[in-house]
């Protein structure tokens, strides 16, 4: 594993077949190459966010089709979690469009975490920046993962977000880790960043101690009304290269093929799995953007000979990696 951005950029430049071979070699050393972890993501509080993240449809500063909605009721969340489990998801991720949660918000969210845990599912939350003591409260409720993405490199970050800084994100990750919560942390490709930025972004993930257990790699969804909606599409092979480099540099992390799958044909997703992706967001919708339906994913898995990673197998793999 390297934290050196220049060395990581050298990986990006390898001949494609050599890069995929290296990624597959690393992948097979640490994971079942034909198993994919399934997570379902639900927006428990949609729209009206005060932040100006340039890719996000939920910012109150952008003119998008998303309307602000209040926090979901507990029974609605439990119903969604049960449905996700019935479809095969092992992790249920709850996202709220906040700069960060107010203390009054944490009790109802904690109730959701406890209720989902009672279904024997892993829990993940993405609630924005965390204040003092909030990570501990979430940990006490039983939260397994906290998602807070770095998005891109420190150098490119100011082109994407202006209302909070890179260090703010690192501070939230540090607080979650200190509270004993595992990290889900990745970024978005295709926001106009360079290959060097992608290399530096992966270096930042690798420098976290320990690196995130879960690394979502998103492809920008061009949402009308957001500042980044007119960015040119990222070359698909460059996206596959990013997956492969992330797998090599972060050998024990689950690399999640995340937002943007709806616009990926089957052969592109197949290349991403070949490059070391071994997790997906599973279900018809992410926070506000469409996602391939469960039937489509099952059909793709059947064509590729992939199988969902069940809870027992996932626990065994985690135990093996920490042994």
From TrEMBL:
<dbReference type="InterPro" id="IPR013785">
    <property type="entry name" value="Aldolase_TIM"/>
</dbReference>
<keyword id="KW-0411">Iron-sulfur</keyword>
<feature type="domain" description="Radical SAM core">
    <location>
        <begin position="34"/>
        <end position="261"/>
    </location>
</feature>
<feature type="binding site">
    <location>
        <position position="56"/>
    </location>
    <ligand>
        <name>[4Fe-4S] cluster</name>
    </ligand>
</feature>
<comment type="function">
    <text>Catalyzes the conversion of dethiobiotin (DTB) to biotin by the insertion of a sulfur atom into dethiobiotin via a radical-based mechanism.</text>
</comment>
<comment type="subunit">
    <text>Homodimer.</text>
</comment>
<keyword id="KW-0408">Iron</keyword>
<comment type="similarity">
    <text>Belongs to the radical SAM superfamily. Biotin synthase family.</text>
</comment>
<keyword id="KW-0093">Biotin biosynthesis</keyword>
<dbReference type="InterPro" id="IPR010722">
    <property type="entry name" value="BATS_dom"/>
</dbReference>
<keyword id="KW-0808">Transferase</keyword>
<keyword id="KW-0001">2Fe-2S</keyword>
<dbReference type="Pfam" id="PF04055">
    <property type="entry name" value="Radical_SAM"/>
</dbReference>
<protein>
    <recommendedName>
        <fullName>Biotin synthase</fullName>
        <ecNumber>2.8.1.6</ecNumber>
    </recommendedName>
</protein>
<feature type="binding site">
    <location>
        <position position="184"/>
    </location>
    <ligand>
        <name>[2Fe-2S] cluster</name>
    </ligand>
</feature>
<dbReference type="GO" id="GO:0051537">
    <property type="term" value="F:2 iron, 2 sulfur cluster binding"/>
</dbReference>
<dbReference type="GO" id="GO:0004076">
    <property type="term" value="F:biotin synthase activity"/>
</dbReference>
<dbReference type="InterPro" id="IPR058240">
    <property type="entry name" value="rSAM_sf"/>
</dbReference>
<comment type="pathway">
    <text>Cofactor biosynthesis; biotin biosynthesis; biotin from 7,8-diaminononanoate: step 2/2.</text>
</comment>
<feature type="binding site">
    <location>
        <position position="93"/>
    </location>
    <ligand>
        <name>[2Fe-2S] cluster</name>
    </ligand>
</feature>
<dbReference type="InterPro" id="IPR006638">
    <property type="entry name" value="Elp3/MiaA/NifB-like_rSAM"/>
</dbReference>
<feature type="binding site">
    <location>
        <position position="49"/>
    </location>
    <ligand>
        <name>[4Fe-4S] cluster</name>
    </ligand>
</feature>
<dbReference type="Pfam" id="PF06968">
    <property type="entry name" value="BATS"/>
</dbReference>
<dbReference type="InterPro" id="IPR002684">
    <property type="entry name" value="Biotin_synth/BioAB"/>
</dbReference>
<keyword id="KW-0479">Metal-binding</keyword>
<dbReference type="InterPro" id="IPR024177">
    <property type="entry name" value="Biotin_synthase"/>
</dbReference>
<dbReference type="GO" id="GO:0005506">
    <property type="term" value="F:iron ion binding"/>
</dbReference>
<keyword id="KW-0949">S-adenosyl-L-methionine</keyword>
<keyword id="KW-0004">4Fe-4S</keyword>
<feature type="binding site">
    <location>
        <position position="256"/>
    </location>
    <ligand>
        <name>[2Fe-2S] cluster</name>
    </ligand>
</feature>
<dbReference type="GO" id="GO:0009102">
    <property type="term" value="P:biotin biosynthetic process"/>
</dbReference>
<feature type="binding site">
    <location>
        <position position="53"/>
    </location>
    <ligand>
        <name>[4Fe-4S] cluster</name>
    </ligand>
</feature>
<feature type="binding site">
    <location>
        <position position="124"/>
    </location>
    <ligand>
        <name>[2Fe-2S] cluster</name>
    </ligand>
</feature>
<dbReference type="GO" id="GO:0051539">
    <property type="term" value="F:4 iron, 4 sulfur cluster binding"/>
</dbReference>
<dbReference type="InterPro" id="IPR007197">
    <property type="entry name" value="rSAM"/>
</dbReference>
């Amino acid at each position: 594993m390297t934290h050196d951005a220049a060395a990581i950029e050298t990986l990006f430049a390898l001949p494609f077949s050599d890069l995929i071979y290296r990624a597959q070699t690393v992948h097979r050393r640490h994971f079942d190459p034909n198993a994919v972890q399934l997570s379902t993501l639900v927006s428990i509080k949609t729209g009206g966010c005060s932040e100006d993240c340039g890719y996000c449809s939920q910012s109150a500063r952008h003119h998008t089709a998303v309307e602000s909605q209040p926090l979901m009721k507990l029974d609605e969340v439990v119903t969604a979690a049960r449905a996700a489990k019935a479809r095969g998801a092992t992790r249920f991720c709850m996202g709220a469009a906040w700069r960060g949660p107010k203390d009054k918000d944490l009790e109802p969210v904690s109730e959701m975490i406890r209720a989902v845990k009672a279904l024997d599912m892993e829990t993940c939350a993405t609630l924005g920046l965390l204040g003092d003591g909030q990570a501990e409260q979430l940990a006490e409720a039983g939260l397994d993962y906290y998602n807070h993405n770095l998005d891109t490199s420190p150098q490119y970050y100011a082109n994407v977000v202006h209302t909070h800084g890179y260090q703010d994100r690192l501070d939230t990750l540090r607080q979650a880790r200190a509270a004993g919560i595992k990290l889900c942390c990745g970024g978005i490709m295709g926001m106009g960043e360079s290959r060097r930025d992608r290399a530096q972004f992966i270096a930042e993930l690798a420098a976290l101690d320990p690196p995130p257990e879960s690394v979502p790699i998103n492809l920008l969804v061009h949402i009308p009304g957001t500042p980044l909606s007119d960015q040119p599409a990222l070359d698909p092979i460059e996206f596959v290269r990013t997956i492969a480099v992330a797998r090599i540099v972060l050998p024990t992390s689950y690399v999640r093929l995340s937002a943007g799958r709806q616009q990926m044909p089957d052969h592109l997703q197949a290349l991403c799995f070949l490059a070391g992706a071994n997790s997906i967001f599973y279900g018809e919708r992410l926070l506000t953007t469409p996602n391939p339906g469960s039937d489509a994913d099952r059909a793709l898995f059947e064509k590729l000979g992939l199988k969902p990673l069940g809870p027992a197998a996932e626990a065994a793999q985690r135990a093996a990696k920490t042994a």
